[in-house]
Specification:
Structural class: alpha+beta
Oligomer: single chain
Number of strands: 23
Subcellular location: Cell inner membrane
Distance between the termini: 46 Å
Main location: membrane
Protein name: ABC transporter ATP-binding protein
Strand order of the largest sheet: 6-7-8-3-9-10
CATH class of the largest domain: Alpha Beta
Helix content: 10-25%
CATH topology of the largest domain: Rossmann fold
Strand content: 25-35%
Radius of gyration: 24 Å
Membrane topology: Peripheral membrane protein
CATH architecture of the largest domain: 3-Layer(aba) Sandwich
Number of domains: 2
Shape: globular
InterPro entries: AAA+_ATPase, ABC_transporter-like_ATP-bd, ABC_transpr_FbpC, ABC_transpr_MalK/UgpC-like, Mo/tungstate-bd_C_term_dom, NA-bd_OB-fold, OB_MalK-like, P-loop_NTPase
Length: 359
């Protein structure tokens, strides 16, 4: 296992990048702790796989350095980095049996036969293929082959890190849940440093100790699932995490009050003069629909019953607002205003969260 340090790291696919916009991966400086499980979360094209391939050595960065522990591995080839990597689509040896596929990384490093047999049996049980160890990989389904790839990535105990690039794409939904649970269990047991790339917030939030949210080539926030939900550091984090995502509205801030189209919204903190584009963000869980005269006037467009609660979709002068209402919460035609919990409102300037003082 190893601590991973990214120092002034950036990458462009252009030979002579002239501006920040030319970089697929904007400059970043981060330290990822030894033995922790991280998820790189973001939409397609945000730089997740680029960053993973730089860490693994498949791609050389345009600038900056990568350290495993105290060792600079920026110029080191993949083979010298002592990592395991599982790709989005299965990579298996079709002519080998499932057993030999799983054993290959250990045999290649001269491990003792008894240890290989024990470890292969353990991993085969984890991926649910203990009854297929004697089968050749050729002819197996795509999800079975991907389970072999996952198992081969997990079979070594001495790696610096295990890197997963959207490894559950071809796995059926029930098996996805089971494998995520087992990966988390193995992480707790063996303490490997794990980095897991995904665009699926459920995968990220259930797998990782820390989620690294990426947007437009930047890391916009690193935090626990609770931190990302309670205090999104960027409006994209609020939008991308949560279902539905955070409500974001343009506002003017004066001290501990926000003003939106003439309506006054109390805040739990006070703010000085703010420049740039100012917005407030509040999650649907902390928005209430009311018939009182307080709050913002809205037009309710539809109500979606999703079982445990209802999602009320409303319009505020062309801006969508989502409200989560419990099954027992009344919703009637005369409820045409919304109020926000003051302590759950974030204030953002040019999309970045700002911290206020005591109100």
């Amino acid at each position: 296992m190893a601590k991973i340090t990214l120092s002034h790291l950036a990458h462009s696919y252009l030979p002579h990048p002239a501006s920040e916009d030319d970089f697929a991966l904007k400059e970043m400086n981060h330290v990822w702790e030894d033995g922790a499980a991280y998820a790189l979360l973001g939409p397609s094209g945000c730089g997740k796989t680029t960053l993973l391939n730089i860490i693994s050595g498949l791609l050389h960065p345009s600038q900056g350095s990568i350290l495993f522990g105290d060792t600079d591995v920026t110029e080191a080839p993949t083979t010298a980095r002592n990592i395991a990597q599982v790709f989005q689509f299965p990579v298996v040896y079709d002519t080998m049996t499932v057993r030999d596929n799983l054993a290959f990384p250990l045999k290649n490093r001269g491990a003792e036969p008894a240890y290989i047999a024990s470890r292969v049996a353990q991993i085969a049980e984890m991926i649910g293929m203990e009854d297929q160890l004697g089968r050749r990989a050729r002819g197996l389904t795509a999800d079975a082959k991907q389970k072999i790839s996952l198992g081969r990535g997990m079979v070594r105990e001495d790696v610096n890190a295990i890197l997963f690039d959207e490894p559950l794409t071809v796995i059926d939904p029930h098996m996805k849940w089971a494998l995520r649970t087992q990966l988390k269990s193995l992480h707790r047991e063996f303490g490997h440093t794990m980095i897991y790339v995904t665009h699926d917030q459920t995968e990220a939030l259930t797998f990782a100790d820390k989620v690294v949210v990426m947007y437009d080539g930047r890391v916009v926030q690193i935090g626990t699932p609770e931190e990302l939900f309670e205090a999104p550091g960027h409006t994209f984090v609020g939008y991308f995490i949560g279902s539905p995502g955070m409500n974001v509205l343009d506002a003017n801030i004066e001290g501990d009050r926000a003003y939106i189209n003439g309506a006054e919204i109390p805040l739990s903190r006070g703010y000085g003069e703010l420049g740039g584009r100012v917005q407030i963000g509040v999650r649907p869980e902390f928005v209430s629909l009311t018939a009182d005269r307080d709050g913002l006037p809205v037009n309710v467009r539809r109500i979606e019953d999703v079982g445990r609660h209802r999602i009320v979709r409303a319009d505020f002068f062309g801006t969508d607002i989502s409200i989560i209402a419990g099954e027992e919460t009344p919703v009637s035609a005369d409820m045409n205003r919304v109020t926000f919990r003051p302590d759950k409102i974030g204030v953002y300037v040019d999309d970045w969260r700002v911290t206020g003082g005591a109100a």
